[in-house]
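The step that takes the researchers longest sounds almost clerical: writing a folded protein down as plain text. Below is the pair of lines this work produces for a single protein:

——
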Amino acid sequence: MKPLVIGGNGQLGSHLRAEIPDAAFWDRRTLDLASPGDLQQRIAAAAPNAIIIAAAYTAVDKAESEPDLAWKVNAEAPAAIARAAQALDVPLVYISTDYVFDGRKPEGYTEEDGTRPLGQYGRSKLGGELAVASLCRKHWILRTSWVFSEHGNNFVKTMLRLARERDELRVVNDQRGQPTYAGDLARCISLLLASPGGDGAAPWGLLHTGAGPAVSWHEFAQAIVAAAEGLGLLHRRPRITGIPTSDYPTPARRPSNSLLLTQRTLSRVCRDPFDWQRALPEVLRKIGRPDV
């Protein structure tokens, strides 16, 4: 028996391949989460000793026009997976998001704070949380925010590309959160699965992940450009201008405060703390220099 990772090619899945190399990885070619009808039976046949849901519908703005699809992938499919995990009596890890909150709280959010999603993406992820929590006893729901990596598409890659193309970057400065390196999240998951059951160092349930200073998207962009310049990845440094959210309208509303406060129990299990400032230069090195 070995762990099953559902979503093997995204940011998190790519890092889980390095952290849990003996796991089975199911991607879109193997599994369509938008059609979860036979999902429980397929997992039962695979008989994993743990399940990690690293796949999701993450198109935040598109979810406003595709709420049914977002719900199928982010809520109905996790419900089927949770039933399978419960039947097998194995741990289930579900990755959730800061978007389950409305962002109105002035301080960071704890696991005890009430949820109030602003859009369809957040609602679908909250639906997944509720399904996993109610259908599978041995579960960890890990909320995370602002995930970046050398893999996939993310804010760091976008800012580096735009910094090479433009003289000025206009970036929202009234949304704050905590960037999370996908490699840190993958390492934490591997340590959770290796911990002495869910009744030991990390009790089953909901846990917030992440660490490091909270920043606005504007401040994060400044950190990305400064680090890239220091590594010689930019020929010249563009201006980075902060703008309000109202100047960058999107179909989906974003929480203005996405800071997730973490519990000490998670810090004890994840011995290497989350640290986006440490990870950022290494991610930029891996992305590499522009083509000459």
Summary: The first strand starts at residue 4 and ends at 6. Residues 267 and 273 are 7 Å apart (CA to CA).
